[in-house]
Amino acid sequence: MANTKTLVVNENDIHLTFIDSGAPAKTPYVTIFAVHGMCFTGLIFKKVSKIFYDKGFRFVAVNRRNFGGSSPYTPEELKELTGGDDEKKNAWLRLRGQEFGLFIAKFIQQNNLPPITPDGKSGGAVILGWSAGASLAIATLSIVDTLPQDARGLLSAHIRAFIGQEPAPLALGLPTPPKNWAPLRETSIPEELRFQAFAHWITSYFEHGDFSKRDLDSLEYVLASPLRPPSIYNMTKAETDEMLQLDQAATSDLPFLFNLANPLKAAFRKVCFDPATKELLPKMSIAFMTGTMPPAFGPAGLWAVEREQKEAGTNHIQLKVIPGANHFMHWDDPEKSVEAYLDCIKL
What's the pLDDT tens digit per position in 9-28? Predict the structure, then answer.
């Protein structure tokens, strides 16, 4: 159903690979561009891709740079990410957003994707950013005004929604909870095993306290629940061999998250609260979602967005909680996930 393809996005020969469900039988249709998180490539979305296609949507899961055959970062780019000053870090994030923005614009043009219909009930595109992928999605939406005029016009006519699925506060440039924990930084775990431990931990289910209290101390940061096995146990060896890239977390994702807090926060606030973004992308709705059983960063991220929205004096961002879902609900519970995504899009 889905074929891996490659699209060159700019004159520097930067290319992104992707899987594409293809156009459904009926048109106009909505296209969903999904961006994966740490360690797992865009193939993690293959189950929801099929369901969306069967429902008359087009689903495109894009591999970020350094993943799944997309262009690796150059040594110079990694050096700027880890050692550059604030100006260079802002420029670094802007370039990544421009690359993905040009990918979307070129994909729209090459595939003649239908724009949002006058009644708003079909057509257009949704950007779904899962986990660390939400950072790239937000970076992209924050730089639409810097794209060439034709690309800017395409995104303005097509983007109808952004969905942030369980980004950690850090992925939005917001403060990390004091009790935050992850195997990646646990020195008692042998260094060569930390990323393997992370893959088991992040795919687990966690039992947290009462969500209604918005209490960070009520979250379980370390111990997984025995109620349901980690999602990685529902993957075959062939599937993990195909879509699990543990080494890229250390190479690019962790430096990205820990060094770009200020640029990420500025991008997040520009996308969510700047009237200029609303003017440029007038049809775009915004939603953030979390399950009730992911690692603690899932609900912590949602509550951080909720606080930001309250401080901004607005309530236009939809905040959605999915009972019983973990960080890999699109793998373990794809039907439930599609329902949640559709509710966020509000067709």
Answer: 998 899 999 999 999 999 99
